[in-house]
Amino acid sequence: MGNYQQPLLENRSLYQMAALISLVTTSLIFITAVFLVRKKFTLITVLGSSMYPTFRTGDRLLVLKRHFPHQYRVGQIVVAHPPYPSPKWREKLYVKRLIGLPGDEVAVPETQLNSQIHVAEADSIDVSRNRIWRLPDTYCFIQGDSHWSEDCRAWGPIPVQLLVGVVCLKLPCRTGSADDGEIVKQAPSAVRSTSLPLKIDGE
């Protein structure tokens, strides 16, 4: 009987080893996938109204991180840091639409300017009263969909390095209040740690 028991023990040992290898491999694949997702994507929650009606408060957006100007296209909805020197403001993010890239000429019609919001000095004003900005090599122009948005119409062009990424998906679930909105804050997610809260504003 002892002769039969030894092969059984060996087979059980091999099975346990195979199961352990499978578990380790699966764990490594999962950890690698989570790392890559966290490196490439971030999840944010909208607060505010500057992208209304495109986005509303509570909308959850998946953002694909981008690091180089050539990765962006005019018309994309982007996430960017505000152009304020204060570290407090630099922790925040804004969701806006990309209107112009380095080297572009941006024309903003007078009808898109809000008399109650400061308007940055433009390079020129054409015969149709459009404000014209000519973007330097390292600058871009972002603008909210709402008439009340605070954006490059008030700031002027901003450095393209302030762009964080492109909104690639609006998730079907929503959080927060039912107010219209466009400000963004970091939302809890499995792909990004919430130990360092990230606020995203879009007033």
Using brief descriptors, characterize the structure shown.
single chain; 203 residues; alpha+beta; Umud Fragment, subunit A; nine-stranded mixed sheet; three-stranded antiparallel sheet; 3 helices; 32% strand; elongated
Which SSEs are present, and which pair or pack?
Blueprint: H1 2-40, E1 41-48, E2 59-65, E3 77-80, H2 87-90, E4 92-100, E5 105-108, E6 124-125, E7 131-134, E8 139-143, H3 152-155, E9 158-159, E10 163-174, E11 182-186, E12 199-200
Parallel strand pairs: 4-12
Antiparallel strand pairs: 1-2, 1-11, 2-10, 3-4, 3-10, 4-8, 5-7, 6-7, 8-9
Please indicate the percent range of residues in DSSP E strands (runs of 2 or more). Answer: 25-35%
CATH classification class: Mainly Beta
The ordered H/E elements are: HEEEHEEEEEHEEEE
Number of helices: 3
Shape field: elongated
Q: Give the biggest beta sheet.
A: 9 strands, mixed
* Helical/strand content category: alpha+beta
Per the CATH scheme, the topology name is Umud Fragment, subunit A
- Described by its quaternary structure, the protein is single chain
Instruction: Count the E strands.
Output: 12
Uncertain stretches of 5 or more adjacent residues: 177-203
- Distance from N terminus to C terminus (CA atoms, Å) equals 80 Å
Helicity level, as a percent range?
10-25%
Mean pLDDT: 80
CATH superfamily: Umud Fragment, subunit A
- The number of distinct structural domains comes to 1
Q: What is the C-alpha radius of gyration, as a whole number of Å?
A: 25 Å
